[in-house]
Amino acid sequence: EVQLVQSGAEVKKPGESLKISCKGSGYSFTSYWIGWVRQMPGKGLEWMGIIYPGDSDTRYSPSFQGQVTISADKSISTAYLQWSSLKASDTAMYYCARFFIAAAGTSYYFDYWGQGTLVTVSS
Amino acid sequence: QSVLTQPPSVSAAPGQKVTISCSGSSSNIGNNYVSWYQQLPGTAPKLLIYENNKRPSGIPDRFSGSKSGTSATLGITGLQTGDEADYYCGTWDSSLSVSYVFGTGTKVTVL
Q1: DSSP symbol at A8
Q2: Which residues of B lie inside 8 Å of A (Cβ-Cβ)?
């Protein structure tokens, strides 16, 4: 059974750093892209970026480029999303999900999702 | 703001049918497959439809998807109270800013 298990909720102050995690199991972690999706309170879904754990190839949404860092440690089947200096506007639920890309390059979708990590940034 | 436009809300009585539209452009829906996600209250999204009209294992055939040109549609028949949720379309966007995009989201209410 494919599972993505995310780290627990975090409460941080503006300016602090943070790294949240997403551990995959039940499939070959290095053979599928992992993506991160933000959902601000009461709002819709936003694609942040993806990483291919097999070779750490990473792509970012222009909206999030330079704002966060996506990484992965394939030895422990875990992907990460990190901030160096949090802002109040980073308060949101963050989901990791397995991102399928068809070989032909026209089919892309998230097929398995983590349970989400709530990040609250407040002074 | 999203490049995929959905109606904010749709509603119908139990047993009825609803359709949700997702409007895009040639840089996204026009040249890529569309997927749909269901987000029940307080839970993570779940894949409902992929490659325009395919259902993952376990998704009932009450849910269907279609695509025509630069628009896609999700249909739900035999509406149930458990279908009350937010629904999002998604696809790849090949414009200058290459990335995956989600629709604005639609709240389905069962009257």
Answers
A1: P
A2: 2, 31-33, 35, 37, 39, 44-47, 50-51, 56, 86, 88, 90-92, 97-105
Cα(B30)–Cα(B38) distance, rounded to whole angstroms?
A: 22
Report whether A10 contacts A30 (CB < 8 A). no
Residue A3 in 3-state DSSP? strand
Band of residue A104 on the pLDDT scale cut at 50, 70, 90: confident
Give tens-digit pLDDT for A29-41: 999 999 999 999 9
Query: Which pLDDT does position B3 carry in this prediction?
Result: 86
Report the residue from B88, B97, B102 with minimal CB separation from A62: B97
What pairs with residue B10 in β-bridges? B108
Nearest to B33 among A44, A107, A111 (CB): A107
* pLDDT for the residue numbered B1: 64
Answer yes or no: do A111 and B56 touch at CB < 8 A.
yes
